Amino acid sequence: MMRGTLNEGNVLLNMRTWKWVDGVFESGLLSNREFPYLACSSDGIAAIDAESLGFDGFGHEIACVEVKTAVAHSVLEEALSLGQIDAYTCVAGDEMFSRLIPDSHKAQVVYQAVVIRASFCVYVRACETGVVYKVVVYVPKSLSVTCWGYMVLQAGCCVQ
Fold it and tell me: Which terminal residue of the chain has fewer beta carbons within 10 Å of its beta carbon, N or C?
């Protein structure tokens, strides 16, 4: 975990050179304005050109950024086998999402987008020497509404 945390700043700096990224900013704990007890801690926030990535009907959008640094050799081999294009794109829950985002990270990616009410999350798989692959995940409104309702209900039961 410590290696990954140290690597996040380098990855965010590198993101500024990607042609579909308009800007990127480090972030910490982010809470929802309407429901401040719903919060997440994404590694960054990016302004992206979603249309240039093939997302028709979208323009310049805000996306949460999640950086995961791989250190295990087997994970690196798997990640390196995927890292052949500039950026993968997928929809949360589709076959590409299942293939590109490890099971242990899927909920985090969707949750962050839902909490900050973004339609996108940029998932970056990195190693200590650089970016291995990147995925721009579209989180449809229908999924956001379902997740949002569930989170508010769950949090509302716990907060008095």
Answer: C
